Amino acid sequence: MMPRMLTVTFLGTAGSLPTPERNPSAVLINREGDLILFDCGEGTQRQMMRGKTGMMNLDYIFLTHLHADHILGIPGLLETMAFQGRREPVTIAGPVRTAEAVEHFDRLCYYSRKFPTRVLELEAGDVVRMEGYEVEAVRTAHSVPSLGYCLREDTRPGRFLRDKAVALGVPSGPAFGRLQRGETVEVEGRIVRSQEVMGPPRPGRKVVYTGDSRPTPEIEEASSGADLLIHDGSLDDGMADWAIETMHSTAGEAALLAKRAGARRLVLTHISSRYSDDVSTLLADAWRYFPQALVAEDLMKIDLKLRDR
To answer: pLDDT by residue (tens digit) across 162-193?
Structure first.
């Protein structure tokens, strides 16, 4: 059986001011063909074309907050999908006033689209369920109402212990499948239970995306053991005062949070235009605490593999 795919594509990694190398904020997750978009900065649909990610399987757009650099790509993306024949609804989820923002887009922009948009206004702790995974809204701290998001896959059953099943007299064939599905089987008048021949449950993957935010205890808690933490890393540690004033994070602050949370990987994004030519200062600050840290680049892809523990 092929491993289940989960690919993260960084469509836009700029701070508030885009640069020739960095588009405004947008992160796309492809989970087994399901596309989930987090933020939708200007030109996101073109970045999807450049990255060859596809867009017609996109059902959810999660917005961290309503600053222009995180939402102005929505009208163009919806219109592009309409031109390509989209008919299925798209859900746009975000903090308070998301419905108002989407309504303004509908009034100001002519759409040829023949599909509806559904709006969800979320609060921290709200969960949106999909098949096999969920997205939870996480409290963040920015200059306007904001949320981060934790995509969390369901726990998977343990591995089937074939040798143990054979030792218990279970014949190969349909009985193996029944045990793997959690059922019991009868072997020569004796009951064999699934838990006798299955290894311990295995974790699903977890991805946390903060959007623009100061570090918060809630982000740290959500990031516990995360396969990937995508954190605001707008500024270097020498600009900590400015980070506090503008409600962003420094690279070192994000890395320290990742270390405390036990995250497996950290990617810094929302990179200030002052680092357009050189991100070495950001990396140096992050690596002091978290050597696995990376600075995101536009169209960078990360594949997250399943793990047994």
So the answer is: 877 777 777 888 878 887 887 788 788 888 78
Rounded to an integer, what distance in angstroms lies between the CA atom of residue 153 and that of residue 173?
29
Task: Specify the domain boundaries for CATH 3.60.15.10 within the chain.
Answer: 6-156+202-303
Bridge partner list, 90: 117
Which of the following is catalytic: 34, 59, 69, 308? 69
Q: Other CB atoms closer than 10 Å to residue 172's CB: what's the count?
A: 10
Average pLDDT over residues 36-65: 97
CATH number of 6-156+202-303: 3.60.15.10
Q: Is 277 a catalytic residue?
A: no
Tokens of 226: 């995360």
Spatial distance between the Cα atoms of 48 and 50, rounded to a whole number of angstroms: 5
Global confidence as pTM: 0.90
Report helix, strand or coil for 288. coil
Spatial separation of the C-alpha atoms in residues 21 and 9, rounded to whole Å? 15
